[in-house]
Amino acid sequence: MSDKPEKNGEEAAEESKETPPPPHHEEISTETTHTVRIAGEEVEYTATAGRMLLTEEEGKKKASFFFVSYTRNGVEDLSTRPLVFAFNGGPGSSSVWLHLGALGPRRVLLDEEGMPFPPPGSLVDNEHSLLDVADLVFIDPVGTGFSRAIPKDEAKDFHHFKKDIEAVGEFIRLYLTRYKRWGSPKFLAGESYGTTRSAGLAGHLYQRHGITFNGLMLISSILNFQTAAFDRSTGTFLRGNDLPYIVFLPTYAATAWYHGKLSDKDQSRDLREFLDEVESFAANEYTLALFQGTALPADRFRRVARKLARYTGLSEQYVSRYDLRIEILRFCKELLRDEGRTVGRIDSRYTGIDRFRDGDAFEADPSMDATMGAYTSTLNAYMHDELEYESDLPYEILSAETWQNWDYEDFKNAFVDVSETLRSTMTRNKFMKVFVANGYLDLATPYFATEFTFNHLGLDESLRDNVTMEYYDAGHMMYVHIPSLEKFAADLRTFVHDAS
């Protein structure tokens, strides 16, 4: 028992003010030097892993941003050296996927097709990294990775469409200032919701700070959420929005083709040739049939159902039962139901096993199950073993709490849509180019939906050549597939060169 007098409430409160804050409330970084061989060339670089604090103008701390940057050594003139800020989406995802899957100098080892090896996973040098032509900064938004709000219970303030853009934008401004990179050609690379963030950031930073970007890299893009607005929240569908059924159809067809569920004639066709036919049907006969609703004559209903069955690998009875409208999770469950398998949403090449064959949705996305463990274990080992960064915080790979609590108040009673922001920014900064990477087997952000969005941007004809679309024989994270990664890396190098 202590014989020290107990402190009253005021004394205890005063002492608590003097108690040092937790480590993640302070700025700290580590620097390590490495070498990687990219395209036959030895590239020496410095890796920096650290935290940067966002504060209000009076100095009050708001958030701790974690980042990992890679800068090539020996560059004398930084004004000639492009700089890429990269992040993933979710919302609620860390940047681990682009970091250790595509752009960084180290990558998670998967087999040639992107299938995992037994745990715990390992890293190898990434001979396809973009580091030979650009410096890289991987950003974890607040609530992901090691990034945290200060205090923690104010995290909800950052889980917000507009405030997220403002916070990431402030990090980018600070980085440009502290690391003297205002004069460098600048790029944003976002994946999935990260493309939504990229379009918003490009507009926000242009208007708020006059920051202009040479290029945006939109990987598995979604700018207009109407294209993916299947609504299962009440067990019903979003009545009147037939667009997703149309723009998802070519990816359903590509998935059925990949898994050998089509007729012998269609299976023997080149995928691109087959998709041309499916796209034409989707944009014409199928669109008109959905538009007519119950006014569609019975003979035309049957004809459309037969074609849907042919293109999707599903039965005519099944597509008729759902009124010619096949929702994404129903497709993932139904295509291989007779084999007791489900197909992935993120990448439909992957298959999973559910306890029960009935139902309208899979238990879990097999494409996420195939990659999550390897990326998680290798990231945590990499931080400690190679980057020499220490933290007891859990590295939030994918934060369900962040995703579930995300606030889209800027789009009340409307679909989230940043396509007009992108059009406006491209019009005001006529030098900004946009690269769009699409996976044929991506059922999260289908390529035909992305084409629809860009075809409706309303971009002036003089600026349309500033948009480049490329396609890959894999899914959302097309870079896990080594042939796609090789093409993806080559395409990005060309883009950075041309946009710089």
Short description:
37% of the residues lie in helices and 18% in strands. With 500 residues, the chain is α/β, with parallel strands linked by helices. The strands form 3 sheets. Strands 1, 2, 3, 4, 7, 8, 9, 10, 13 and 14 form a 10-stranded mixed beta sheet that branches.
List its traits:
alpha/beta, Rossmann fold, 2 domains, two-stranded antiparallel sheet, 15 helices, 14 strands, about 20% strand, disordered N terminus
Q: What does it look like?
A:
- The structure is a single chain.
- This protein has 500 residues and is an alpha/beta fold.
- It folds into 2 domains: 21-224 and 372-499, Alpha/Beta hydrolase fold, catalytic domain (Rossmann fold), CATH 3.40.50; 230-364, no CATH class.
- Helices cover 37% and strands 18% of the residues.
- It contains 15 helices and 14 strands.
- Strands 1, 2, 3, 4, 7, 8, 9, 10, 13 and 14 form a 10-stranded mixed β-sheet that branches. A two-stranded antiparallel ribbon has the order 5-6. It has a two-stranded antiparallel sheet with strand order 11-12.
- α4 links the parallel β9 and β10.
- The longest helix is centred in the middle third of the chain and has 22 residues, at 271-292.
- The termini are far apart.
- 44% of the residues are buried.
Report the sheet-strand fraction.
15-25%
Taken in chain order, the helices and strands follow as HEEEEHEEEEHEHEHHHHHHEEHHHEHEH
CATH architecture label of the largest domain: 3-Layer(aba) Sandwich
Sheet of most strands: 10 strands, mixed
Q: What structural class should be given to the helix and strand makeup? A: alpha/beta
Enumerate how many helices there are, as a single number. Answer: 15
CATH class of the largest domain: Alpha Beta
Distance between the termini: 70 Å
Spans of 5+ residues with little confidence (pLDDT < 50)?
A: 1-22, 233-237
The shape is globular
- Helix share, percent: 25-40%
CATH third-tier fold name of the largest domain: Rossmann fold
Number of domains: 2
Question: What number is the mean pLDDT?
Answer: 92
Fourth CATH level, the homologous superfamily of the largest domain: Alpha/Beta hydrolase fold, catalytic domain
